[in-house]
């Protein structure tokens, strides 16, 4: 899909620009960045704060990247880059904070949606400190993005190519990036609750796989953990409709799981959102064993601190076809109750 309404460079006529719109990948040798065609808004409550929140995704210029803006703050620096080095690590969600102390938390689901739909540039406006949880998955964000459509821009897509293995470990799990010619996410979880148990899944993220296979998988938690979080003033916006709650062998949320392995699929969704904070699509294999938000962020820190572990590459059509977001079709969004 090509956007013939985008403003052309001043040195090229409208007629010639239209020709280039159709031929640029062949002539220039690279595939271009994208943004949304128009703004789309989402309203809900924050999972942990329980407070109402409105988030709006707006188009942004080429090379802008993904930035968050707090619209409820009128003075000082209200912009926060969606970047690995401004993450304040937490085991429960991904929170970014700027030098002025302005923050936004629980960004992983909207970041996964942007990455999974192949959006490189966007301004994320939000009127509070936490992204609305919606149904606990990325599906509402994906539906909104693809309903608005994608507009191509005059700048090449650059991908972060993994050149050698990088790994981080804790006593409870580990995460690793290995060289690969596309993004593959391989995740293993192991929970005592029989309703979840041990699950593993690996998925090539190209050709719309995120939209088809992962975007509707919801956040999940154990009832014992919910009780503990409530006692500590957390998960105040959590309900049985925006999270899958399990208690031993029982699934307390109405309708049960959307997938038998919804738990590991959601972990993979989270991982895509957290990896998107690298600032560019990743060409490599991510493996997580009982990993979470903090560990994935620690892995990105290790990656950027390791000499020779990566390089940035301009994406030709063959490479771009292997990125998350390639081949996305709106009709492939899973229908949810």
TrEMBL record:
Molecular-function GO terms, alphabetical: metal ion binding; UDP-3-O-acyl-N-acetylglucosamine deacetylase activity
Co-factor(s): Zn(2+)
Residues annotated as transmembrane: none
GO term, biological process aspect, one: lipid A biosynthetic process
Family the entry assigns: Belongs to the LpxC family.
Gene symbol of the encoding locus: lpxC
Alphabetical UniProt keywords: Hydrolase, Lipid A biosynthesis, Lipid biosynthesis, Lipid metabolism, Metal-binding, Zinc
Binding positions for Zn(2+) per the UniProt entry: 109, 266, 270
SUPFAM superfamilies, per the entry: Ribosomal protein S5 domain 2-like
Pfam families registered for this protein in UniProt: LpxC
Catalytic residue positions: 293
InterPro entries cross-referenced by the UniProt entry: Ribosomal_Su5_D2-typ_SF, UDP-acyl_GlcNac_deAcase, UDP-acyl_GlcNac_deAcase_C, UDP-acyl_N-AcGlcN_deAcase_N
Keyword set includes Lipid metabolism: yes
Protein name according to UniProt: UDP-3-O-acyl-N-acetylglucosamine deacetylase
Pathway(s) this gene product operates in, as recorded in its UniProt entry: Glycolipid biosynthesis; lipid IV(A) biosynthesis; lipid IV(A) from (3R)-3-hydroxytetradecanoyl-[acyl-carrier-protein] and UDP-N-acetyl-alpha-D-glucosamine: step 2/6
Its job: Catalyzes the hydrolysis of UDP-3-O-myristoyl-N-acetylglucosamine to form UDP-3-O-myristoylglucosamine and acetate, the committed step in lipid A biosynthesis.
Recorded catalytic activity of this chain's protein: a UDP-3-O-[(3R)-3-hydroxyacyl]-N-acetyl-alpha-D-glucosamine + H2O = a UDP-3-O-[(3R)-3-hydroxyacyl]-alpha-D-glucosamine + acetate
Coiled coil (UniProt feature): none
Enzyme class: hydrolase
Gene3D superfamilies with a match to the protein in the record: lpxc deacetylase, domain 1 (3.30.230.20), lpxc deacetylase, domain 2 (3.30.1700.10)
NCBIfam families recorded: lpxC
Entry EC number(s): 3.5.1.108
GO terms under cellular component: membrane
